[in-house]
Amino acid sequence: MFADCPPVDPPMRVGGKWTAKIITCLRSGPRRFSELRAPLAGVTAKVLTESLRSLERDGMLTRTERPGVPGHVEYELTALGRSLFEPLAAQCAWTRAHMAELAAHRAAG
Amino acid sequence: MFADCPPVDPPMRVGGKWTAKIITCLRSGPRRFSELRAPLAGVTAKVLTESLRSLERDGMLTRTERPGVPGHVEYELTALGRSLFEPLAAQCAWTRAHMAELAAHRAAG
DNA sequence: CGGTATCCACGGGGATACTG
DNA sequence: CAGTATCCCCGTGGATACCG
């Protein structure tokens, strides 16, 4: 899921701790709450909810309740949210290109 | 100094709160501690020192004590540090292009 | 001039339990 | 299923004072 974007702890971040991963998870289309929670190993429901609400307030994604039994909720990126792919890709590219050098410095220093 | 990179509170950040601005300040060449502190309005000596030490540990910049009376200290970006310009520019471009839309969502929501 | 030393406030993030 | 409600920890960052 995130193989193209190595999880070097920082030094580069978009929004909160889970924001970049959420965007990446939604890349290929809308997903439900539980479909987001599974791949984002370690995130609690509370924190995931907060992150999603924050992204919704910023217009990065939409939240849609689908009725039925059982009902579910769909999260989908807006155009604004998808526009983050570009800077996100730049960060991933930087990390891929320099993470070894960075790790070497940290190990030495 | 930072006119080309609007200070939208985030959503995009490189490292700590001051990291991106420090890198930008060092863009045109080496600077002394006090030459960094002035344009970074609001940063305390402690926090600036911490940020610089962290960047030094990561190999992003070098710290050089110049003897003499009065002596001073020079901070200069390494090649690794300068390599951050690219993703940094991508972030600035995104912010410039979408900050109005973002602000509108936040005001409405 | 270029820092340390202390102390402290705040907010993000997490653990756990519970709910419509 | 998709959350809330609580409680709490801890790291970042800031205020203030002092130092070689």
Question: What does this molecule look like?
Answer:
The structure is a homodimer. Chain A has about 110 residues and is an alpha+beta fold. In chain A, about 50% of the residues lie in helices and about 15% in strands. Chain A has five helices and four strands; from the N terminus they run βαβααββαα. The first copy, chain A, has a three-stranded antiparallel beta sheet. In chain A, strand 3 and strand 4 form a beta hairpin. The model of chain A has no long low-confidence stretch (mean pLDDT about 90). The interface between A and B is medium-sized, with 28 and 28 residues. Strand 1 of chain A pairs antiparallel with strand 1 of chain B, so a sheet runs across the interface. The first copy, chain A, binds a DNA duplex (20 and 20 nucleotides) through helix 2 and helix 3.
User: Stretches of chain A where pLDDT falls below 50 for ≥5 residues?
Assistant: none
**Oligomeric state of shown chains:** homodimer
How many helices of chain A does DSSP assign?
Answer: 5
Strand order of the largest sheet of chain A: 2-4-3
Number of strands of chain A: 4
Largest sheet geometry of chain A = 3 strands, antiparallel
Largest interface: A-B, 28 and 28 residues
End-to-end separation of chain A: 32 Å
- What percentage of the residues of chain A does DSSP assign to strands (E)? 15-25%
Report the radius of gyration of chain A as a whole number of Å. 16 Å
Shape of chain A: elongated
